[in-house]
Design goal:
Blueprint (H helix, E strand, L loop, with lengths): L2 E6 H11 L4 H5 E7 L2 H5 L9 E5 L3 E4 L5 H4 L8 H10 L1 H11 L14 E6 L4 H15 L4 E7 L6 H14 L5 E6 L9 H24 L17 H7 L1 E4 L2 E15 L3 H5 L10 H10 L13 E8 L12 H10 L5 E8 L4 E10 L5 H13 L6 H10 L2 H7 L1
Parallel strand pairs: 1-2, 1-5, 2-3, 5-6, 6-7, 7-9, 10-11
Antiparallel strand pairs: 3-4, 8-9, 9-12, 10-12
Helix pairs in contact: 1-9, 5-7, 6-7, 7-8, 8-14
Bound molecules: guanosine-5'-triphosphate (GTP) and magnesium ion (MG).
């Protein structure tokens, strides 16, 4: 059962490429890089032509290996979100066929065989912002659970970018199960934002990879270990980042955080016999809270959360030193709804990591309100979910039931 990772546009392609830096990713996931500019696709280091999909006005979606590709796929949409959306809608069928073909699954009705899809893109541009919600709709129609990883523009990028972001989100929320936010405001104070993109992309990619590789490949068998070491999977990830309101399923708005610590000192790298350090998993968790992917987030406001600890096996044996139950307690204290998805996975590296997802209602995220304001100053458009969710959350179970 493969996962599909789709990166759309320059930013989406950058994060996707960074995620597949680890070859293990190819064992569990199929990468698809979609762009309207060959030059952007050529900057990728880990994904070759066979993983590319071009998008253009006349030809719709085409395979990277097609003859004349570079010639057909050259323009880009230059932040024109509406145009990209229109073209994607017109060629919906071909993108659906390409996804099925790449994932090498057959059948067009239910049971497609793709367990979960990720769709990664920047909200502020044209290609990613316009085409991705359409691709999300296609995935939804195929019955594939979908997690969107979206990049919010920094405020200084201006009205058009904010408008694109708000319009894209307004459509996206109708079609995906979860939304993970990555906020460029986090790197807006740096001298050269562009140079930081790569590092930021790597940080996000590493966090996603920990969750995917940790839960799919390096999962542990709890029976073999002494300590408290539950197993989670991507279904948990979706549960932790979505809301059920009455009969209705709504995406949550989550932010990512990750912290790591070396488990051996340098000497033990050279003579690798034992020598594991004590790991303070609680401080690891708090350090991941300090590095959340969204600006102005209150950790204590999270509705629900997920954490995946990845540890070398030695830490989970009888003599192991990690108190995982204590870590679970800390996470439970940080969830309003009392819903924590807590998992432990193995790693072959000499590294302990904590990767967290904290999930909010849109109204609790001040950066979404800022985006909505900036967009409305530019054009008459606001972020719909800011009000919608509050109304639904204010209703009791009976009223929600009656809504159906
Ligand atoms: N974090 C991060 N943000 C990026 C990166 N590249 C671009 N951005 C941001 O993404 C937004 C623009 O989106 P792009 O991905 O460049 O646009 P696109 O989807 O290729 O669309 P076009 O307008 O057609 O080129 C802006 O808000 C940029 O600040 C990246 O590699 N990392
Ligand atoms: Mg572009």
């Amino acid at each position: 059962m493969p996962y599909v990772f789709i990166g759309v546009g320059q930013c989406g392609g950058g994060i996707l490429d960074a995620a597949f830096y680890d070859r293990n990713m190819f064992k569990v996931a199929v990468p698809i890089a979609i762009n309207s500019a060959t030059l952007d696709l050529q900057t990728m280091k880990n994904l070759s032509r066979e993983h590319w999909v071009g998008m253009s006005r006349d030809r719709g979606f085409i395979n990277g290996t097609m003859e004349g590709f570079d010639h057909f796929i050259s323009g880009g949409y230059g932040k024109n979100r509406a145009k990209a959306e229109e073209d994607a809608l017109r060629h919906e069928d071909s993108v659906r066929d390409i996804i099925l073909e790449r994932a090498r699954v057959t059948g067009s009705e239910e049971g497609i065989g793709i367990a979960v899809a990720f769709i990664i893109f920047a909200l502020g541009g044209g290609t990613g912002s316009g085409a991705s919600p359409v691709i999300a709709k296609v995935l939804k129609e195929m019955g594939i659970p979908t997690i969107a990883v979206v990049v919010l523009p920094a405020s200084h990028e201006g009205g058009l970018t904010a408008k694109n972001a708000v319009e894209s989100l307004n459509i996206l929320t109708e079609h995906v199960d979860s939304i993970i936010l990555v906020d460029n405001q986090k790197i807006a104070y740096a001298e050269s934002t562009e140079r930081l993109f790569q590092r930021y992309n790597e940080y996000i990619a590493r966090s996603l990879r920990d969750i995917v590789v940790g839960t799919a490949i390096e999962r542990l068998n709890p029976a073999e270990f002494e300590g408290y070491a539950p197993v989670i999977d991507l279904k948990d990830t979706i549960a932790a980042t979505s809301f059920t309101l009455g009969k209705r399923q709504r995406p949550g708005f989550a932010c990512l955080g990750r912290a790591s610590e070396r488990t051996r000192d340098l000497l033990h790298y050279i003579f690798p016999i034992g020598g594991y350090k004590e790991i303070d998993v609680i401080s690891l968790l708090y350090r991941s809270f300090m590095k959340l992917s969204v600006e102005d987030i209150r950790v204590e406001d999270a509705e629900k959360n997920l954490v995946l600890l990845r540890l070398p096996p030695a830490y989970l044996t009888k003599a192991g030193r990690v108190n995982t139950s204590m870590a679970k307690k800390v996470m439970e204290e940080h969830s309003h709804l009392g819903e924590t998805h807590f998992g432990v996975a193995l790693t072959k590296r000499n590294l302990a990591t904590a990767t967290v997802l904290l999930t909010y209602r849109p109204n609790q995220i001040s950066r979404l309100k800022v985006m909505s304001q900036l967009a409305s100053q530019y054009e008459d458009v606001t972020l719909k979910v800011l009000d919608e969710y509050e109304k639904d959350f204010a209703l009791g179970p009976k009223e929600l039931e009656a809504q159906e």
